[in-house]
Each structure stands twice: as structure tokens, then as C-alpha cells.
UniProtKB/TrEMBL annotation:
Keyword Cytoplasm among UniProt keywords: yes
Naturally occurring in which organism (per UniProt): Sediminibacillus halophilus
Subcellular location: Cytoplasm
One Pfam family linked to the record: tRNA_anti-codon
Name assigned to this protein: Asparagine--tRNA ligase
Keyword Nucleotide-binding assigned: yes
GO biological process, alphabetically ordered: asparaginyl-tRNA aminoacylation
Reactions catalysed: tRNA(Asn) + L-asparagine + ATP = L-asparaginyl-tRNA(Asn) + AMP + diphosphate + H(+)
Domain Aminoacyl-transfer RNA synthetases class-II family profile: 130-430
């Protein structure tokens, strides 16, 4: 019977055949242990010399790393293994022999591993990170589908930007100027006026010359937008969503979290409600912590976010930032127009901002004023202005950066390991 490693629990005591690759091995004179992977998981194959034909045992001893093969054997429970099962091998059939595989069990430098990213993805830890990424994506769709959101796909090529053009990739669109999208938000606002509650999930691009562990040039964002939803309700939706995907990872990625040696107690604390502080309170907190140079009106950098997060054992919302350092579309606080109805969600453990969101301006006259202040008078933004002209309503939205969230949940230091093929400041290969 042909099966996969992820399904062997259904076949205990049965003889099965698995198509796999050899990840690693060790052997003695009488027994060989084969670490096998098939994309769905990892399992140990045990080859006992006295129980197989001599040719099979010799093949097991001589097989090389990343050789592809069909392995036939009996599934047995193994309480010593985190996976819980092993394969008692009876037969091997080599499909393709791999020679001189460049990534060996020894230590390799980061640049070497990134140059061989197409092969590094096969390793157990990288596999675990990608499985956690996949679970976040799966549970994201589940959350929004269960709450009656409609998935809408905004364009990647755009004629305008969401937050200024300084960090956009510029290109030619035949005879017009165009950019790679840095956010689908403006288009999601249009979709929300048609469908009520929507979300997008897709790639975004930032031409930002940053080399920090939190930054990528190309990354993926989940961007919900909601009609008839104001600031406070939006915060509640955000914390419910983050709590849901965190608990889904805890429940469905136990083996992967174990492989990564993740402290799951910290993930278990990611449950709504989350604490909230205003930007004003955050400034005061930073000054108490020794950041004497921070002044009101300045944006927070990574050290500031980390220091703020250390004061809480859950993710924390920082709300009501100064209007002058936030995007043109954010709605001012009616009681205090110099700050806007917005929030950043700061993750603990130094992972920084994972969500940025706000209530959007719904007043036509105020948006026209913002257009003048930001020189957004061109035709490229006319359609966005019209959303306030024809049946405007209060609405809010937010964007969650997938890779930062994966890094946080997986306990990975650098976001370059949280996307299959990262695009960094000096890396476009492989």
C-alpha cells in the first residue's frame, strides 16, 4: 500500500511503501537508521541486517544524502520518537542517486545557506517553519470565511501608492508610470463598499534599503477591510484574529514547534483581549526606561518597540499616533485632531510591529483637504476620492505582515527564514 509519512498513523502494523528522500543516516555492522522525508514529514526507517536480503542492507549502508527512493516496510509505534512512529524497512528501490549534496549535517554560514535556499528548504527546521507558515495561512482563511468576509484580490501593478512613493518599485506600464504595490488597502476599501467585509492575501513590495532582521523587500500581507466598523471594533477583530491563528498553530503544529524548540507557553498567552496604550503613554513609558532622546511626534524604531513590548506578557496595541507621522487616509480623533484613530500591534520577544491599522477618513471634504496637503491631485487617486462621494460610511482596516508573524510564532530570529525564497537588499537569487 502506497502512503505518505503524515498518514502512517493509520497503518500501524501494515506494510506500506513511501516515496522519500534520504535526509541523513547512521549505521553499524548489523543495523542502519535512515532519516527519511517525503515533504509531508520525517520518519526513521530501521534496516536490520538479519531481517532483510543482503542487497537491501548494503543499499541502506551505501545510500547517499538526498537520494530519492521508494521504501517498503512495516509501520510500528515508537515512543522514543517525537513523531511517534518508525518504519521497519523490508525493501529499498533507488529512484535517483544524489551525489555530493552541498548542505551536509555540519554547520554552514548563512550566506552559503541562502545561496542554496532551493536545497536548504529540505532541512527539518526549515520544513517546520514552512509548515507553521502554511498553518497561519490556512487558519487565516478559516477565520475570515467563518466571519463572512469575501476574499478579494487587489492588483499588484498600480498607478498610485498607499503611503507615498519613496519606497516603491517604479516600472513602466507601456506609456504610463506604474509601481509594484506596497499595499492593497486602497483597493480593499473599494471592495468593502461593495461587499461589506473583505480581505486580501498577496505579495507586497517595499524598495526600502534595510538590512534588519525584520525586513524583506518582497513580503506577503493579509489585509481585511470592513464597512460600518469603527476603531474600537476593529481592534477587537484584530485581537480575535491573532488569537485564533496563534491557537491554531499551537494545536496543529506541535511537532514543528518541538523541532524548533519553541517555548509554547509564550504562544499560549496570545489570547484576547490585548493590552492597549496610547502613543502618549508609550512616550512616557520609553522615557521611564531611559530613552531620554525620544520626543513627541517621532515614530518608534525597533529598540523602542522592543522596550514597550517588554512591559507586557501579551501583544500590545499602541494607539492614537500623531497625524503627521501617519498615512493621509487615517481618520483624526474627533476629540483631538492632532492624533489619528489608528493602532500598531507590537509582538513580544522583540518581533516588533506585526499589524498596522486604522479607521479611514470617510468625510469627502476632509479627504479633499488631505489630497491638497499631500499633493494627491492627480487622476491616479480620483477613484479613491469617489469612495467618499458615493455612499460613504465609517470603515476600518488593517494589515498583518505574514513573515513577521511566522517568525514570532516559530521563534525564528530573522524573517528571511519565514518565506520560501526571500528577496533581500542584496539578494535576488535563487
Amino acid at each position: 500500500m502506497k502512503t505518505t509519512i503524515s498518514q502512517v498513523a493509520k497503518h500501524v502494523g501494515e506494510e506500506v511503501t513511501i516515496g522519500a528522500w534520504l535526509a541523513n543516516k547512521r549505521s553499524s555492522g548489523k543495523i542502519a537508521f535512515l532519516q527519511l522525508r517525503d515533504g509531508t514529514g520525517f520518519i526513521q526507517g530501521v534496516v536490520v541486517k538479519a531481517e532483510v536480503e543482503e542487497a537491501v542492507f548494503q543499499a541502506a549502508k551505501n545510500i547517499t544524502q538526498e537520494t530519492s527512493l521508494y521504501v517498503t516496510g512495516t509501520v510500528a509505534e515508537d515512543t522514543r520518537s517525537p513523531f511517534g512512529y518508525e518504519l521497519q524497512v523490508k525493501g529499498l528501490e533507488v529512484i535517483h542517486e544524489s551525489t555530493d549534496f552541498p548542505i551536509t549535517p555540519k554547520e554552514h554560514g548563512t550566506e552559503f545557506l541562502m545561496d542554496h535556499r532551493h536545497l536548504w528548504l529540505r532541512s527539518k527546521k526549515q520544513h517546520a517553519v514552512m509548515k507553521i507558515r502554511n498553518e497561519i495561512i490556512r487558519s487565516t482563511y478559516q477565520f475570515f470565511n467563518d466571519h463572512d468576509y469575501v476574499k478579494i484580490d487587489p492588483p499588484i501593478l498600480t498607478g498610485s501608492s498607499a503611503e507615498g512613493t519613496t519606497e516603491l518599485f517604479h516600472t513602466k506600464y507601456f506609456d504610463e508610470e506604474a509601481y509594484l504595490s506596497q499595499s492593497g488597502q486602497l483597493y480593499m476599501e473599494a471592495a468593502a463598499m461593495a461587499f461589506g467585509k473583505v480581505f486580501s492575501f498577496g505579495p507586497t513590495f517595499r524598495a526600502e534599503k534595510s538590512k534588519t532582521r525584520r525586513h524583506l523587500i518582497e513580503f506577503w500581507m493579509i489585509e481585511p477591510e470592513m464597512a460600518f466598523v469603527e476603531h474600537e471594533e476593529s481592534l477587537e477583530i484584530q485581537e480575535q484574529y491573532v488569537s485564533f491563528i496563534a491557537q491554531s498553530v499551537l494545536e496543529n503544529c506541535k511537532l514543528e514547534l518541538d523541532i524548533l524548540e519553541r517555548d509554547t507557553d509564550k504562544l499560549a498567552k496570545i489570547q484576547a483581549p490585548f493590552p492597549r496604550i496610547t502613543y502618549d503613554e508609550a512616550i512616557d513609558l520609553l522615557k521611564e526606561k531611559g530613552f531620554d532622546d525620544i520626543e513627541w511626534g517621532e515614530d518608534f524604531g525597533a529598540p523602542h518597540e522592543t522596550a514597550i513590548a517588554e512591559s507586557f506578557d501579551k501583544p500590545v496595541f499602541i494607539t492614537h499616533y500623531p497625524a503627521e507621522i501617519k498615512a493621509f487616509y487615517m481618520k483624526p480623533d474627533p476629540n483631538r485632531p492632532d492624533v489619528v484613530l489608528c493602532a500598531d500591534l507590537i509582538a513580544p520577544e522583540g518581533y516588533g510591529e506585526v499589524i498596522g491599522g486604522s479607521q479611514r477618513i470617510d468625510d469627502l471634504a476632509l479627504m479633499e483637504q488631505r489630497y491638497q496637503e499631500h499633493n494627491l491631485t492627480g487622476d491616479a487617486y480620483q477613484w479613491y476620492l469617489e469612495l467618499r462621494k458615493y455612499g460613504s460610511v465609517p470603515h476600518s482596516g488593517f494589515g498583518l505582515g505574514l513573515e513577521r508573524t511566522v517568525a514570532w510564532f516559530a521563534g525564528v530570529e530573522h524573517v528571511r527564514e519565514t518565506i520560501p525564497f526571500p528577496r533581500l537588499l542584496n539578494r535576488l537569487y535563487p
